[in-house]
Amino acid sequence: MSDDNKNLSDDLDDMIGDAKEGAKKAGDKISQKASEFSEDAKEFGRDAKEAASEFADDAKQVFSDGKNVGIIAHMTFIGWIIAIVMNSSNKTEFGSFYIRQMLGLVIIAIVTSWIPIINLIMWLVLLVAWIMSVIAALGGEMKPTFLFGKQFQEWFKGL
């Protein structure tokens, strides 16, 4: 081999050696970054699992709390239905109490709505009874409404 060919061959061998070394360094760096990413992903997974568990515990507490059911029962007819569904999975006396109270008030409102003059008076009386009931529910007290609250508890004890 001539000197030019030998120098070219040596240069080519050096280049290949440098390329191999560079590829090895790049591979090591990629492996290190992949390992770091894997650890970050595991940590993120643990944090996400913990947050999901905390959320589930909070949701269970909200749905099992009779006070929330009692308050929701006061919010329109749809709220009353939602309260029944929430209370059916985990019955609480507090939730059931206000579901019965609101059912009684709604029935009285429907019945008295057909009587012209009494209608206006009863709507005002029912509004006051509803406000007092909401305040008691917010305060965590089981106070029957001043109209027929005790009777509502007897009449609708199946709820």
Automatic annotation (TrEMBL):
The chain crosses the membrane at residues 68-85, 97-115, 121-140. The keyword Transmembrane applies. Keywords: Membrane, Transmembrane, Transmembrane helix. Residues 21-31 have a biased composition (Basic and acidic residues). Coiled coil: none annotated. It comes from the Bacteria. Residues 21-45 are annotated as: Disordered. This is YtxH domain-containing protein.
